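User: Sequence in, structure out. Go.
Assistant: Echoing your sequence, followed by the structure tokens.
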Amino acid sequence: MPSFESLALRPEQRCNKVFNAIIKTLLHNRNQWMTAMQLVDDCRKLDLAQLRGNTPRATIQGAISTGLSTARTLKVEPPIEKYKATYGVCYRISLSLFPKDSEVIASMDMNPPPDNVNQNPPKPAIRKTTQTKRTKSRQQLYEYTSESDSEESDSDDSESDDSESDESDTDSSDEQPSRKRIARYHSTSEFTSESESDSSESDISMDTSQQGANETIPNEVEDFNSSLCTTSEPSDFDINLFIGPTSFAVAQEIGYSYARFRHQGNMRCPKTNCEDSFSIKDLKSSDGSFLCRLFCLADGHGGSGCSAFLTTKIPSRLENMLCQYDYSQLDDQKVQEKFKQDITLLIKKLDDEYLDAKREEYRKWQNDIIHNRVRSTQVEPVDDGATLVINLFFGEWFININVGDSRTLVGCKTDNKWMVEFSSEDHKPYLERLALQIYSNGGVFVDNQDKPIKFDPFPQERNVRANLKNARIRLQAADNDLGVPYKNNNGIHFSLNVAATCGDLLFKLNPSKPVISCKPDIFFERLGPFTEYNGNRFMLMSSDGLFDHLYSNKAELQNQTIATCIGQQLDARCQLKKIVAHLCNREGDRVLFENTLQEYDDCTCILVLM
């Protein structure tokens, strides 16, 4: 058989380790038709991939789906062929990948797999759409167990693991376990041995559900492709681990959607690129000493260019600015006001730089079209934007800077209860302070069907306009000389559901009267030495991919629900990276998240103990 290197696979298709293991396993078996479970067994026997967790079959299927999606994006032949037998779907390498050697192809078994194979096939996963009955307080449905409380249950589970390992990957029983509204989170000791070895493998299954079906909420989407989620810890960043805060973790899950047609089954279709971008850095003074710790998160929309630009440029710009400040003087209100002005100007300059670059891209594109110089390899410019949230730990001060609808919340433990101490305010169209400016600068408020919403141009006494609760923003007049597109192929105007962003040239064509601004909200809080708090306070910063998928759509309830969820897991001594991975797995917790959604946005969570 040909070698793996000789197959017609592009470099982009060879990046996924599990997918590579599947190809090598099929080559080892002379490209015979194999089911997902057969691939799991042989991958393990050949030691080609470490398939941990309770759903290795789903990991294999997810890697195959990702490989097919990548091929569609690259516009090349699909690398895997499928055959639906009576006992399940079988896979083999597409013959188009092999060298044009008739002897090699002739040696393969071209017949479809027999349908009379004696095996107990798994039942197909069914994505339930029935919504469970809501209760008065969802955050009270959690039960977290500490290390001492879970010792007995852990020992029971470990005894049954070996005997039930073959059944854990497939549903061989017609009877489903009864769903319980208790989520049990075990202590750090349960996860330590496996998590350390798993951290370097971004495509290995990272199952946050626990053993014992009668004790946990079962994931109603059994084929959860956890390879879409990656986690990071302090040791993964170039920071000083002796200066706080040093206890933090990051999880990021690329967005995905479900196939819209019945014949495509329950397949997840991940996005080509994650549009979220983050940066965690130590900012240094002119003499090279530690100055500040930066946590920066940008949630892109329309593309990943703006978010990547922001997280790349901000660290050095902030470093230069902060060298002019002494954190001990931030008690002075005048110093804080000067700080706010400098930060606002810094973000405005970055926004202008990106918009100027986009204007130049569109001018060049228009010029090439006029002179018929557009080559087939040229790519039309993309008008994208991003929200931005920056959190600084500057001496004894915590400083939050927010543009858009990514969110920061600080939770603290008071009288044995986890409460929300601070949360940033999402910049949404319904905010009175933003709506007036949007309207006066040429913005129109529309609903999800692009129908205009009546707007009273006179100032209101309330901070929120109720009729704009689900409003989007588009332009009154969008024709422009740059050729920036303002309608999609169906003639629907492009619109945004966020009222402050960086980038988004379409909404800032007139620099003197931008429909949407990039002016940030800035918050100061003096924390004191980090050793005072002993882990009883945390900060979470997240893109809207977390909060938009919660059951509640009210920010206050969302914040309290998340604060309780995180706080109780901290009390149970769960690892931070397990907590953020749990938050990003929005189909793994049916108490927190909606379970009837067709699409899931990119999600990034950064959790910091303060």
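User: And one key feature?
Assistant: Confidence is low (pLDDT under 50) at residues 117-225.
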